[in-house]
UniProtKB/TrEMBL annotation:
Keyword ATP-binding listed: yes
Gene Ontology biological process terms in this record: regulation of DNA-templated transcription
Protein name: HTH-type transcriptional regulatory protein TyrR
CDD domains assigned to the protein according to its UniProt record, in alphabetical order: AAA (cd00009), PAS (cd00130)
Domain PAC: 95-145
Keyword annotations from UniProtKB, A to Z: Aromatic hydrocarbons catabolism, ATP-binding, Coiled coil, DNA-binding, Nucleotide-binding, Transcription, Transcription regulation
């Protein structure tokens, strides 16, 4: 004891031993914490493949308690069918890192066995880590299913569009619409980019179809995409395609974009004003050099695609406001075609109504006619939704009206109101007229309208709420004749 106390070197050794012991205990605690907190399962086996330890994640993943396997040999566990493959055994045999895909308790695991060597090169341990990839696998499958659905939807849309095209006829009577059609036919023959402008529902899509049908690319599909309907995050990959692994969820083999699909044909970019800025840049590049690089790729593909674009927005105004690129606007606006609003081509209204009433009537085997009053009201209406709205009105009238004759009362209220409205007394007082003169003028105008509508005094009296003798007297005074 005194030796130890008096001998400096031996007392140092004791302290050093104690310090080393503390350090060792600390390291062991640290190691325990790492092993126990790992979300991957860990198995530690000795050189004979006997299980020394498993961590809580492994207990969870395999649904076992450590006590059930610790002390047992992996060969034993394999024989008992407890596991179907052992990464530990293979790592021991091959003396190298081994990864295996395993199915356990309905879950998918990746097990990696790593041999641990001593200084002499002898294997002293094998550490096996297990990762549960069931969720990742499910997500991957879901993604692939989503992609497949999207592809199906895409080809379905193309098929529907093809069928739709075959049943479409362009009705045009007014000079402005005939001019637009002539322009469309003229540009069909060339390969220039065309920008089709006009309000929503005027028939811009129909003009694009007409150009395609009469072009040298008629045998190739017209691929149409609505730039406003594709989510902003997808539009670039949809348009330009992507290479394998370009982003999370990308199909493993990569995918061609609509531009590639339209190679040799025509791509119709509807609602072009909604194209996000990054896609605007890429489209401009394509229009300049005819080349496309898929997302995540490096290889440029040369494509022969004619571009038709359409919008109901004022692109010039958007350029001024900085929301649309001027250079792209110039590239697209090589040949602009303006499709007039329906209210600016009243001559087209009745032929369109006839066409659609026949079409829907034929479809449902119903034949209906419009009264004169209903026709007048339909002619006087403004059609903010243009031909698309007129089409819907016709369908509703054919399907919903009782009997074969469609009258004013059968029309939607906003249209009937416009048609039946006899102008009320003018709110503006013409200053050169006396009150009596103004009243007389209004009375005359009302009588004229009622006369035109009913044609006889009895019905006029009924409609205007006076007796027939009053009507006769007033007609005489205004010099208006009746039966
Ligand atoms: N002149 C026409 N003759 C017959 N049908 C027409 C005519 N113009 C438009 N239509 C029909 O009206 C509907 C709307 O037309 P279209 O989709 O071409 O309009 P749009 O201007 O492209 O509309 P949006 O800007 O909303 O895309 C279509 O069903 C189309 O067949």
């Amino acid at each position: 004891m005194s030796d130890t106390l008096n001998n400096d070197s031996s007392s140092l050794t004791v302290e050093e031993l104690a310090r080393q012991m503390r350090a060792f205990q600390e390291q062991t605690r640290e190691l325990d914490a790492i092993i126990d907190s790992s979300s991957d399962g860990l198995w530690i086996c000795d050189a004979e493949a006997r299980v020394i330890r498993i961590n809580p994640a492994s207990e969870r993943i395999n649904n076992i308690r450590a006590g059930e396997v610790v002390g047992k040999n992996m060969r034993e566990l394999l024989e008992q069918g407890f596991i179907d493959r052992s990464a530990a055994l293979e790592a021991l045999t091959s003396r190298s890192v081994v990864s295996q895909l395993q199915n356990r308790e309905g879950r998918k695991l990746i097990s990696t066995g790593t041999p641990v060597f001593d200084e002499g090169g002898q294997v002293i341990r094998v550490v096996v880590s297990e990762r549960d990839i069931t969720e990742i696998d499910n997500l991957q499958r879901e993604l692939e299913e989503q992609e497949a659905i999207r592809d199906q939807f895409r080809s379905h849309m193309l098929e529907m569009r093809q069928a739709d095209l075959e049943s479409r006829r362009v009705i045009a009577r007014s000079p402005a619409m005939l001019k637009a059609l002539r322009q469309a036919l003229k540009v069909s023959a060339v390969n220039s980019t065309v920008l089709i402008l006009g309000e929503s529902g005027v028939g811009k899509g129909l003009i694009a179809d007409l150009i395609q049908k009469n072009s040298s690319r008629a045998e190739k599909p017209l691929i149409e995409i609505n730039c406003g309907a594709i989510p902003e995050s997808l539009i670039e990959s949809e348009l330009f395609g992507y290479e394998k692994g370009a982003f999370t969820g990308a199909q493993s083999g990569g995918k061609p974009g609509y531009l590639e699909l339209a190679d040799g044909g025509i791509l119709f970019l509807d609602e072009i004003a909604e194209l996000p800025p990054a896609a605007q840049v890429k489209l401009l590049r394509f229009l300049e050099n005819g080349r496309v690089i898929r997302l995540g790729g490096t290889k440029a593909r040369h494509l022969d695609v004619r571009i038709l674009a359409a919008t109901h927005r004022n692109l010039e105004e958007m350029v001024k406001q900085g929301s649309f690129r001027l250079d792209l606007y110039y590239r697209l606006n090589v040949i602009p075609i303006h499709v007039p609003a329906l209210r600016d081509r009243k001559d087209c209204i009745l032929p369109l109504i006839r066409h659609y009433m026949d079409l829907f009537g034929e479809r449902d085997s119903i034949r209906k006619r419009l009264t004169r009053a209903a026709q007048d009201a339909l002619l006087a209406y403004d059609y903010p939704g243009n031909v698309r709205q007129l089409m819907n009105i016709c369908e509703r009238l054919v399907v919903m009206t009782e009997g074969n004759l469609i009258d004013l009362k059968d029309l939607p209220a906003e249209i009937a109101a416009g048609g039946s409205a006899t102008p009320g007394p003018s709110a503006v007082w013409p200053e050169e007229m006396t009150l009596q003169e103004t009243l007389d003028s209004v009375e005359r105008s009302v009588l004229q309208k009622a006369l035109a509508k009913y044609g006889n005094q009895v019905k006029m009296a009924e409609a205007l709420g006076v007796n027939q003798s009053t009507i006769a007297r007033k007609l005489k005074r205004h010099g208006l004749g009746t039966t």
